[in-house]
């Protein structure tokens, strides 16, 4: 019996980022209020493009823009800050 070797599929490694205490406070508030933002690979473009999905109360919205590895987490942080400011009525 002959076994066919599978070609390894292309992979994308998510860039690393450390978050400040203020950013973690905002992210924690959003997660506790059913707002989550995730980063996923954009397989249709080059290997350094990422897409952002925003999940609010079980509805998912995808950002139509694609972001480079260097700025994707800055945009995620911007989205978290936007929803924190919009819905946090203290």
Summarize the structure.
The protein has 90 residues and is an alpha+beta fold. It has helices spanning 21-32, 72-87, and strands at 35-41, 49-56, 59-62, 67-68. Helices cover 31% and strands 23% of the residues.
Helix-strand blueprint:
Layout: H1 21-32, E1 35-41, E2 49-56, E3 59-62, E4 67-68, H2 72-87
Antiparallel strand pairs: 1-2, 2-3, 2-4
Helix pairs in contact: 1-2
Integer-rounded radius of gyration: 17 Å
H and E string: HEEEEH
Approximately what portion of the residues adopt beta-strand conformation? Answer: 15-25%
Please state the structural category: alpha+beta
Mean pLDDT: 86
Gross morphology is elongated
Number of strands: 4
Provide the helix percentage: 25-40%
So how many helices? 2
* Low-confidence regions: none
**Sheet with the most strands?**
4 strands, antiparallel
């Amino acid at each position: 019996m002959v076994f066919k070797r599978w070609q390894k599929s292309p992979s994308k490694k998510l860039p690393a980022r450390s978050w400040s205490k203020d950013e973690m406070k905002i992210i924690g508030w959003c997660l506790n209020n059913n707002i989550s933002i995730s980063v996923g690979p954009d397989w249709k473009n080059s290997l350094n493009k990422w897409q952002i999905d925003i999940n609010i109360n079980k509805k998912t919205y995808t950002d139509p823009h694609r972001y480079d590895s260097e700025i994707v987490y800055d945009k995620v942080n911007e989205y978290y800050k936007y929803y924190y400011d919009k819905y946090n009525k203290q």
